[in-house]
Design a protein that fits this description.
Arc Repressor Mutant, subunit A, three-stranded antiparallel beta sheet, 55% helix, alpha+beta
Amino acid sequence: MTDLDRTIHEPARLRILTILTGVDVSDFNFLLTALGLTKGNLSSHMDKLEKAGYVKVTKSFNGRVPHTEFSITEEGRAALNQYWENLDAIRSLKPPQEP
């Protein structure tokens, strides 16, 4: 049986990584709107993805307003690709045939 990466398998984190594969960089507000999460929930998921090395977080200021951007790392891209391969392997398993 192929194991799925539990960090990625959580639906919100899977959606985050999937969005980040399609863009160079995404800001906090875009992800907040696209995912429909609360600020705290999004922050918590991003913290887990950053600790896993799957996303890079860049914090800056626009004047006095904080601005946070996210991008998927090469490690995150590889982990997501492996996740999809593992999911495909599980999907291709056939039940045992009855004698």
